Amino acid sequence: MLRVAANLSFFYQDMPFEARLAAAAEDGFKGVEYLSPYDMEPHRLAGLLQAHGLEQVLFNAPAGGSHLAQVRRAWDEGWRGTASLPGEQEAFRYGIDLALEYAQALSCRRVHVMSGINPSANRGDRLLWLKQLAWAAERAARYPDVTLLIEAINREDMPGYWLHTQQQAYEALVEVGHPRLAMQFDAYHCQKVEGDVLAQWQKYAATGWVKHVQIAGVPGRHEPDVGVLPYGPLLAQMQASGYDGWLGLEYRPQDASRAGVREGLRRWLAQGAVL
């Protein structure tokens, strides 16, 4: 059985954030993920999660910024991580420390570290990226049960994003070789960039590096059963492989109303994933 988590950056967008937490719990979810927790004080957010019986399963390290006010603006200003960006080491390290503080307060075991928009990256930028990841993994080792994740993101949705293939991610994990650094496998991005997501899953799941999975239909990023993603066989492969992490539902419901979200879930979750 797969454990599925609602991505609150995509679900219930007609509701304020706190209401989204309540809606997820009412719809039967036990886990939630979203892009950023930094607009809310960590202990306030932890209290809301506890009140609704929800587990925080994933969030992103800051997209940018060297202090909290900048962090809260960074995504809207176009930042998508700083790990591979020369001159942004201070922002990267501040962001990692902030993310780890939130992870500890929220009892969250997975944090996604974005690599940044860097379309003209060179060998030096790659070496910087690896060095930053190694530093961050060592930092995470100070906290119990926190693993940092890297995720390949397609360049159609995020032009110029440095890390855009599973192979890039795998090679980085091998080179850094730290137990607190792992892979976030996004079936949507993988299918768009590399195709044959079933073969890609078999290849990388077998490495043991995959610690979180996200799913959405291709090409529209709607429910997994809308489009060409072979979601039924993929879910079956995930279960057969023994994957025991969460499956994040990072898709845009075709009908964003509360009833539409529920109907979309009812329709495609019949394939075997359960709340």
UniProtKB/TrEMBL annotation:
PANTHER family xref list: HYDROXYPYRUVATE ISOMERASE-RELATED, ISOMERASE
Originating species: Allofranklinella schreckenbergeri
Single GO MF descriptor: hydroxypyruvate isomerase activity
Active site: E151, E250
Family statement: Belongs to the hyi family.
Name under which the protein is recorded: Hydroxypyruvate isomerase
Transmembrane segments: none
Alphabetic keyword roster: Isomerase, Pyruvate
GO biological process annotation, one example: glyoxylate metabolic process
SUPFAM superfamilies, per database record: Xylose isomerase-like
Xylose isomerase-like TIM barrel domain residues: 21-269
Alphabetized Gene3D superfamilies for the sequence: Divalent-metal-dependent TIM barrel enzymes
